[in-house]
Amino acid sequence: MRRSTFDLTGLTRKQIQAKAASLHHRESIRSRIAELMQQRSLRTGIDADWVLSQAVQVFEEAQKGDDPKLALETLKVIGKHVDVQAFKERVEVNTIDHAAILEERIAAADKLRKQLN
Question: Whole-angstrom Cα distance, residue 12 to residue 62?
Fold first, then answer.
């Protein structure tokens, strides 16, 4: 018979979540998490820039393939990536005119919305 974590610890879910939150506030824990995330990024070759570039490629392919729904969903992913700052680490990117690219993407999104409506 398999026992749950709650049974083994004698704590409730709420107590475990509170303990996890308090541990996460410790600098040593946050540093170790960042270190492990960096190691994973180096090991897999996947980082914030890679994810963003893949999303941009999917967006561009969806536009070429005339798939407005996929293009719009991919554009949402790109927006969430930049807006929500899903990745804590920030890597300096090449000196590309991101404002111009963003303006193009916004114009494309507006065009897609008009096509879908």
Answer: 46
Judge whether 107 and 71 are in contact, CB under 8 Å: no
pLDDT exceeds cutoff 80 at 5: no
* Host domain of residue 24: 1-45
| Contacts of residue 93, Cβ cutoff 8 Å, sequence gap at least 6 | 49
Answering whether pTM is above 0.90, one says no
Distance in angstroms (rounded) separating the CA atoms of residues 75 and 105: 8
Distance CA 88, CA 17 (A): 21
3-state secondary structure at position 3: coil
Same domain, 17 and 50: no
C-alpha span between 35 and 2 (Å, rounded): 33
